[in-house]
UniProtKB/TrEMBL annotation:
This is Recombinase RecR. Keywords: Membrane, Transmembrane, Transmembrane helix. The chain crosses the membrane at residues 17-36.
Length: 45
């Protein structure tokens, strides 16, 4: 049994995956910057 994915459905899936990856990347960079800032503040004391 072969299942076909229509073009608009595949495009929607790729768009959702791209947007989710962008959101996760922004969140990860924000967390990383917060950790670096905390380490730098601890080193100043």
């Amino acid at each position: 049994m072969t299942t076909y994915i229509f073009f608009d459905e595949a495009l929607r899936m790729l768009t959702n995956a791209y947007l989710i990856s962008v959101v996760l990347l922004i969140a990860a960079s924000g967390i990383g910057l917060a950790v670096i800032e905390t380490i730098e503040k601890a080193g100043e004391r």
